[in-house]
Each structure stands twice: as structure tokens, then as C-alpha cells.
């Protein structure tokens, strides 16, 4: 395999899809373009209304003494503000069956909006944290704040670490093997628009899921 090698300097011929694109996001994100699982971070606003943030920048890690979520948040979001105040939140992993409702959460993001109900979802109570869960999501992870760190000096992006202290999984999926579980859950992945660093042009991204045929017997 022969690789085309790149430095991290942004090429001059890049074309933005929208103003400020490569200021808010690294241009490398669109070149490397690794799909990330889509999830909805839910919190309560100061007025008690539900906040729902459709997101795909995060991952999970753990060891014997704990399982943790790490999410990258911009410090201007309601979600960041709510987490700083309550120190608790839920990560809800939706199914492709509710793709339309997921994207409706983006439309309803005012302070007085109930962002779960207005997107067409149903709120359910968390077991261990002060944060709403989404009933239609087959996996819900309840998180408590552990630490925060800026992505880099003076960055508007913050890495938030939360310890998962409770979780719920759709009872239809609990006893399934890996292949059956993937088919049942239909977890969505965010595939960025693909940037060609040689020409500066990009092709549209989209939503993808794992095909069960990808698993060997």
C-alpha cells in the first residue's frame, strides 16, 4: 500500500460549505472522515425544560473501576451550560427508525422549548441522575460529571468526562448476540462530507448504519 502523505497545514484551495466551517471544525476531520455514532445528550435547563442535543463527537472508555463517556462540547451550547450547572446528563443512543425525530431536536432549541416532546419523542425519568431520558432510544446511559478539559489553550471546545452510573437497554436487545443486536438496534453513524485535499472539493455526507453481513459467521 502506498500512502499519500499530508502535513497538518490547511491547503489554500479548500472551499467552505458554509462560512466559518474550518474555524469551528478542523479541515482534517473532513479528510480523515471516520464515522462516529450518533447520540442525543439530554439535560434539564434552568427552567426545568428538557434539552436535547443531537451529537456525534464522543466515545466511551473504561476499566475495572468504571465506564466513562467523553464528549467534546462547544462552550456556547445550552448542553454545556446545563452540565456545568447540574453535573448530570444522559446519553441516549437512537435507532434509524427515529431519524426524523432526531433531526427535529435541532429545530427546537429555544430556552422555553421542551426539546424532547417537540421533536416527537417521549420523556422518561432517569433512575440515578437529574436528567431526562428518551423512551424511544434503545440505549440510555446516565452520567455524572468527573472532569473537564479544554481541547487546547483558549479553545471553545471542552472535553467533558462523565462516569456512567446507570444504564438502560431495550429488553428486546439484551439477550441478542452481536449480529442480531446490530440488526435490532440500527444505531446511526454520522458520516461527514468527504473533502478531497488535492482538489479542495467535497462530496455530501450522510447517515450510515452497520450492515449485519459485515460480521463473519
Helix fraction by DSSP (H/I, runs of at least 4): 10-25%
Inertia-based shape: globular
Q: Outline the low-pLDDT stretches.
A: none
- Helices and strands, in N-to-C order? HHEEEEEHEHEEEEHHEEEE
Characterize the largest beta sheet: strand count, sense, and whether it forms a barrel. 7 strands, antiparallel
Radius of gyration: 18 Å
Mean pLDDT equals: 94
What's the level 1 CATH class? Mainly Beta
Q: How are the strands of the biggest sheet laid out side by side?
A: 3-2-6-9-10-5-4
Q: What CATH architecture do you see?
A: Roll
The class by helix and strand makeup works out as alpha+beta
Query: Number of domains in the coordinates?
Result: 1
Enter the CATH topology name. Pnp Oxidase, Chain A
- Strand content range: 35-45%
The end-to-end span amounts to: 28 Å
Number of E strands: 14
CATH superfamily: Electron Transport, Fmn-binding Protein, Chain A
Number of helices: 6
Amino acid at each position: 500500500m502506498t500512502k499519500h502523505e499530508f502535513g497538518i497545514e490547511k491547503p489554500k484551495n479548500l472551499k467552505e460549505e458554509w462560512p466559518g466551517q474550518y474555524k469551528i471544525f478542523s479541515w482534517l476531520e473532513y479528510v480523515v472522515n471516520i464515522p462516529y455514532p450518533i447520540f442525543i445528550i439530554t439535560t434539564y435547563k434552568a427552567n426545568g425544560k428538557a434539552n436535547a442535543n443531537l451529537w456525534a463527537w464522543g466515545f466511551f472508555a473504561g476499566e475495572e473501576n468504571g465506564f466513562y463517556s467523553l464528549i467534546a462540547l462547544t462552550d456556547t451550547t445550552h448542553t454545556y451550560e446545563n452540565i456545568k450547572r447540574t453535573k448530570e446528563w444522559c446519553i441516549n443512543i437512537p435507532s434509524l427508525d427515529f431519524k426524523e425525530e432526531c433531526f427535529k431536536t435541532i429545530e427546537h432549541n429555544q430556552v422555553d422549548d421542551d426539546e424532547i416532546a417537540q421533536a416527537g419523542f417521549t420523556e422518561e425519568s432517569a433512575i440515578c441522575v437529574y436528567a431526562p431520558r428518551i423512551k424511544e432510544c434503545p440505549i440510555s446511559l446516565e452520567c455524572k460529571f468527573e472532569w473537564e478539559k479544554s481541547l487546547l489553550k483558549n479553545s471553545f471546545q471542552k472535553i467533558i468526562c462523565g462516569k456512567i452510573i446507570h444504564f438502560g437497554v431495550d429488553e428486546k436487545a439484551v439477550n441478542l448476540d452481536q449480529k442480531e443486536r446490530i440488526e435490532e438496534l440500527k444505531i446511526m453513524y454520522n458520516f461527514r462530507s468527504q473533502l478531497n485535499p488535492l482538489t479542495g472539493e467535497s462530496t455530501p455526507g450522510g447517515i450510515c448504519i452497520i450492515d449485519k453481513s459485515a460480521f463473519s459467521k
